[in-house]
Amino acid sequence: MLTDITLGQYFPGNSPIHDMDARVKIVLLFIYIVAVFLFDNHINYGIMTAGAIGVVLLSGLPVGTVLKSIKPLWWIILFSFGIHLFSTPGEPIFKVWNFVMTKEGIIQGFIISLRLVLMIATSSILMFTTSPLKLTDALESLMSPLKKIGFPAHELAMMMTIAMRFIPTLLEETDKIIKAQQSRGSDIDDGNFFQRAKGMIPVLVPLFISAFRRADELAIAMEARCYQGGVDRTRMKQQRLHDVDFWAGGIFSVFLISLIVVQFTL
Amino acid sequence: MSIELKNISYTYMPKTPFEHLALDDISITIPEGKITAIAGHTGSGKSTLIQHFNGLLKPSKGTILVDGVDIGKKNTEAKAARRKVGIVFQYPEYQLFEETIAKDIAFGPRNIGCSEDETQERVKQAMDFVNLDYDKYAHRSPFQLSGGQKRRAAIAGILALQPKYLVLDEPTAGLDPKGRESLMEKFRRLHKEKGTTIVLISHNMDNIASYADNVIILNKGKVTMEATPEEAFSKKEIISQAGLELPEVKTIMNELAQNGLEIQNNAYTMDKAVEEIIEALRRKGKC
């Protein structure tokens, strides 16, 4: 069924990773990703992979779910692996016409794939352990310094919240419309490309109409509650740092320092 | 012949943290030529259940037979059997999409391979049946209609498929009392004139009381009762356990009986209730 898709899906839980403040998670993730692409010592790759595995285990997420999040980008990983395989100069192992596969190419390709996998896996841990609402709240407060130069941080966060809030609703709606049209004998899964494209019209038209209707109703509902953008709004749930965030910051600093030490001494 | 469900179970999102058993070992029979009501509280699995009737959902366990044919198979016979069942979903007006009403109603018949003449004939019949004047409305956009008219146009889209079994999921939700009444009367006429078997999903027990021959009560994915309305409404416990209420008439009759009026207390529709009360008063010698 269509609603079975896990698209940036939040898995509720009680792990330390779930309890962390979303802002801390985003900042640490950002530094981690920069580190993944900055450090190129082989021991460091081991440390960074171990770190990622540690966080997965700590979060209590099913390992399969985290691995599954890599699947959509599988082709990009494979493609960049292939490119590095043939484009890195070095000791040749294998030759097809003008393309030379080198030993260095294999290593380089493997490293770039590992970097991509680490980046995707850790980002999806953030998505899996943070509710969309907390995520956008965190983004808003991280972007709020930019308000001074006229950047609409609140409005942007609000738009993202609304968009994310309506993903499941629209998926459900799509599922319902597909079923209704299937009950009227339409075969959406059958036929060639053009037939299938034509088969989408009976689904897309009602879906658009209902999306516009929902947008309209939501706008009126917000208007009726006197909603007004960013200025002087307070929150129901204040974002506060707790012990777990300081622990996370501490552990991450040790992790980062050891990376730097390894990088420059070994 | 009938729609027969044998030990149906259905799990939403299996093998994830969101796993949810929506239907739990359901075995029921929808007899041909009757009006069967399926009642249950929100989340009892009504809507999930009916999506099995024409194969939109495949059961995690169990088989479904429509007129003796297993609809889970992948052959033309199974496909034909699935097409005997027409489902009108909740708020069917949200499925309208064509430029004109006639085209929208013709969508179904065309999909199942009716000839152009046959399709036009069916469109006319279906529009006639739901009281939409063909000459006046056929070439208008469905989006110009009022809510009730849209509902009727959408229902005509299913009727044009001429299903042997018509499944209605809360067909009167969101309509005013007058519209509700006239729509239900149309379904009753369809049942009488064409012998269409009707499955009515509802939590409005008054509706069920006045139209159904059989009642199936669902509670948390399980069938807790399969009985005639008379029998069903005499078991107040099971009804209220399922989060439902007795029909208003039945509630009044129960109160009368409790307060000492000697009635038989079998009635659950207005007409029969009036008869019973008159009879009881007569016996008392007051009428």
UniProtKB/TrEMBL annotation, chain A:
Keyword Transport found: no
Transmembrane spans: 22-39, 46-67, 73-94, 106-129, 149-167, 244-264
Keywords: Cell membrane, Membrane, Transmembrane, Transmembrane helix
Predominant place of localization: membrane
Superkingdom assignment: Bacteria
One Pfam entry name: CbiQ
Membrane topology: Multi-pass membrane protein
Cellular localisation: Membrane
GO cellular component terms given for this protein: plasma membrane
PANTHER family in UniProt: SLL0384 PROTEIN (PTHR34857)
Annotated protein name in UniProt: Transporter
UniProtKB/TrEMBL annotation, chain B:
Entries under PROSITE patterns matching the protein: ABC_TRANSPORTER_1 (PS00211), ABC_TRANSPORTER_2 (PS50893)
Domain of life, per lineage: Bacteria
GO CC list: ATP-binding cassette (ABC) transporter complex
Localisation: Cell membrane
Keywords recorded for this protein, A-Z: ATP-binding, Cell membrane, Membrane, Nucleotide-binding, Translocase, Transport
Leader sequence residues: none
Enzyme Commission (EC) number: 7.-.-.-
Gene Ontology terms, MF aspect: ATP binding; ATP hydrolysis activity; ATPase-coupled transmembrane transporter activity
Residue ranges of every copy of the ABC transporter domain listed in the record: 3-245
Membrane topology: Peripheral membrane protein
SMART domains with a match to the protein in the record: AAA (SM00382)
Pfam families per record: ABC_tran
NCBIfam families per record: ECF_ATPase_2, PRK13637.1
Quaternary organization: Forms a stable energy-coupling factor (ECF) transporter complex composed of 2 membrane-embedded substrate-binding proteins (S component), 2 ATP-binding proteins (A component) and 2 transmembrane proteins (T component).
Function: ATP-binding (A) component of a common energy-coupling factor (ECF) ABC-transporter complex.
Database matches in PANTHER family: ENERGY-COUPLING FACTOR TRANSPORTER ATP-BINDING PROTEIN ECFA2, HEAVY METAL TRANSPORTER
Family that this chain belongs to: Belongs to the ABC transporter superfamily. Energy-coupling factor EcfA family.
Descriptive protein name: Energy-coupling factor transporter ATP-binding protein EcfA2
Naturally occurring in which organism (per UniProt): Anaerovibrio lipolyticus
